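Researcher: Good morning. I'm working through a list of sequences from a screen, and I'd like to move beyond sequence-only analysis. For each chain I'm collecting a predicted structure so we can compare shapes side by side. This is the next one on the list. No need for commentary yet; just the structure.
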Amino acid sequence: MAYSDDEQVKLKKGNTQSAIEFAIAGRWKDAAGANKAILELFPDDIEALNRLGRAYMELGEYAEAQKAYRKSMKLDPYNSIADRNLKRLEVLAASGVKPPQADGQGVASKVYIEEIGKAKLVSLTNLASREVLARVDAGDKVNLRFGPGILFVDNLTGQYLGTVDTRHALRLIKLMKGGNKYSVIVVSSSDDKLAVIIREIYQHPTQSGQISFPARPSLAAARKPELDAISADEGEPGHEHGEIERSVEESDEEEKLNNDDDDDDDDDDEDREV
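Model: Good morning. Structure tokens for this chain:
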């Protein structure tokens, strides 16, 4: 059946939305079907090829996943999503690892927001093997599990992925024992790095007023009392000197934060894979 250009655009839009919703719900067969429907009309749609590759990878159909990602790479040699997942597929195919069968294990939508005090981006330590990490992708839901002084992160089937650093772990364990609940979503994953965002989703009444992720005071804020004391001792000129010194420190701090933000830009394309 032939479709007009307008009809094709509408069909693509509808199937794209369906493909994303199926992926979020973990309905990977349906997600694959929706993306294939797009490719029937638009065979060179790179985003549909990336989503199809992800769906096949989740279904354990690695040869089909590689086929989709290779076509995507041929159309766009700088396609970081396809390049990254082709490397993962090489590891998976060599190891014989198959995807865990967890119903509804989809990807999370629009969760990469760090809320002050409520959520924190954390890079895990003591990571699992490359074969295990190859099965982890941005948007995956994972779980926290605590032991004596250690906070583990597992996938939904209970497989170990890594641990939370001690500074955050000790505080979170105390709050979890007190009844707090947290959701954890993978933000980025590679052979040697796994970053997650941990979000407080329930605060037990007994933990009222306890902040999950206290903010660290900035360098400028930490120095302010000392500078004010100098200004008070030396009079107005000293006060002006203190204001200048604080401004320089605040500028340096802001530049550092901006540089940190630039480092995070590498993860921006993770959303597009869903």
